[in-house]
Amino acid sequence: MTFTIDVDNNITVLDSPQKLEERREGTETFSNSQELAALAGKWPGSRLVEIWNSLPGVEPVDRFTSRQVAAARIWKAIHHLQPTAGSQRRRVAPKKARANNKATRRARPAGRDHTKTAKVVALLQRPEGATLQAIMRTTGWQTHSVRGFISGQLKKKLGLKVRSFQRDGERVYSIKR
Question: In the chain, what are the domain boundaries?
Fold first, then answer.
């Protein structure tokens, strides 16, 4: 069996050598893990990450420790594939859309009122705010987890202005209006 990979990182399984003549410009071929490793030696690491992350059913990665590791993992994921019976080619890794729009990634579906984030925000929006103990009871978290959540999730990620002060010896948090 022969595999091809084109400039868009689409991997195709060919069932016959005659199909090699039909390949597009910039398409490279390999038949075993050594040939894939030789090709991977010429590619930037980011291409190997893109190829891996576009394979179905794999855990996405940010980087590989080496090109050899990347090639071995890619080969292990694709070597058992066979061309489909009704067609001459099987697309293994479809082209992945390049537009990673953060606005769409942050869009939340409706009906998320029962999350711990929503519960904590509701507590902090009350005029009197919420004590550290009240937040801990609502979420089941420990003190350091509540403080980390307020700092990381509410302040940094959501951009809320959270005010912290002492009332009757207790730590109280509220959202600035």
Answer: 2-91, 112-175
Domain 112-175 in this protein, CATH class: mainly alpha
pTM here is 0.46
Pure H helices in the chain: 33-40, 45-54, 67-78, 102-106, 116-125, 132-139, 143-149
Q: Give per-10-residue mean pLDDT for the chain (177 aa).
A: 83 69 74 89 90 86 90 88 54 54 51 81 91 93 94 89 93 88
Q: Strand 170-175 vs strand 162-167: parallel, antiparallel, or unpaired?
A: antiparallel
Find, among 53, 69, 177, 59, the residue nearest to 126 by Cα.
177
